[in-house]
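Quick check before the chapter quiz. The format below is the same one you will see on the exam, so make sure you can read both the input and the output lines.
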Amino acid sequence: MTKRTSAKYKIDRRMGENIWGRPKSPVNKREYGPGQHGQRRKNKLSDFGTQLRAKQKLKGYYGDLTEKQFRRIFAEAERLKGDTSEMLIGLLERRLDAVVYRAKFVPTVFAARQFVNHGHVLVNGKRVNIGSYRLREGDVVEVKQSSKQLAIVLEAVALAERDVPDYVEVDHSKMTATLTRTPGLSDVPYPVVMEPNLVVEFYAQN
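Here is the expected output.
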């Protein structure tokens, strides 16, 4: 299984933040953006720039979703009753690749999508190979039997850099995870500040 490092680190550099909290992020050494003009990009952002940055950061965090994918999730969040920004976070966290990542079955959200796409994951006993598959509360995600001893899985479980959040119940001895509830913004262990309210403002004005 290949590892995509350049893309995720480029997102970190572009944002000037270590958005996944990983120890190898280049932002830990240099906070400016990529490219020859990266060090000069420190101008104060306009309201539009601030909103766009918030959207790009949240979109990038979940494996750099396409604009079309992210816009569709946002439109769904808008239709739900309640705070749109909270609904957006809930929908993103219910993605199968997000739960595989939260359960520490793999080290990164990029690896989670690839892990799901390659057919290593079961949902309620049935194979699902679509990273965007929407889980419901109570759904059980399991690493299939023949994949439980893969090096990437064993390494991820041992990672000390992040904890499993309380809305995902995990049994690493069986390699199973249950989504116990839909989280809100304050429940999600983002290493950096996420501002979904600014994402709502961005789409309201553009």
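If your answer matched, good. The mean pLDDT is 87.
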